[in-house]
Write a structure and sequence with these properties.
The protein has 130 residues and is mostly beta strands. The protein has one helix and eight strands; from the N terminus they run αββββββββ. The chain has two domains: 11-58, no CATH class; 60-130, Beta Barrel (OB fold (Dihydrolipoamide Acetyltransferase, E2P)), CATH 2.40.50. Helices cover 6% and strands 36% of the residues. A five-stranded antiparallel beta sheet has the order 6-5-4-7-8. Strand 7 (115-121) and strand 8 form a beta hairpin. The longest helix has 8 residues, at 16-23. It is globular, with a radius of gyration of 15 Å.
């Protein structure tokens, strides 16, 4: 479980559907209904074609570890209890890249391009080995 002292995301009108789904253990990304492009992070328009209001769709929750860093120090005391932790960029099968924590994998076993899948920790998406 996440440390209750850690800062929590502050949903707004644009991101509320994402956080509601995450609380249910579902990973959403945006997909343009005009051109079909996926995008992440949430925006009110499609970055590929400019169409308004991309739809929220459920992602497969699988992808590959694009890059990562194992953090051994933090200037933020609310994250200190979790050290060391992994900050990663994951490329989802839908083609978008998201930042997330990697959990349940020995840090020495992490390699770029390894398959990963989403897991949720107290409503926050993380990834683990597939």
């Amino acid at each position: 479980m996440s440390d209750p002292d850690k800062p929590r995301p502050l949903p707004d009108a644009l991101t509320q559907p994402y956080w509601d789904a995450a609380a249910e253990g579902r990973l959403l990304v945006q997909r343009c209904e005009s051109c079909g492009a996926y995008q992440w992070y949430p925006r009110a328009h499609c970055v590929a074609c400019g169409a308004g209001e991309p739809a929220w769709v459920e992602a497969a929750g699988t992808g590959r570890l694009h890059t990562f860093s194992v953090l051994h120090k933090t200037p933020n005391p609310e994250f200190a209890a979790g050290l060391p932790y992994v900050l990663a960029i994951v490329e989802l099968d839908e083609g978008v890249r998201v930042s997330a924590n990697i959990v349940g994998v020995d840090h020495d076993d992490l390699v770029c391009e390894m398959p990963v899948r989403v897991v949720f920790d107290d409503g926050l998406p993380c990834f683990t080995g597939a």
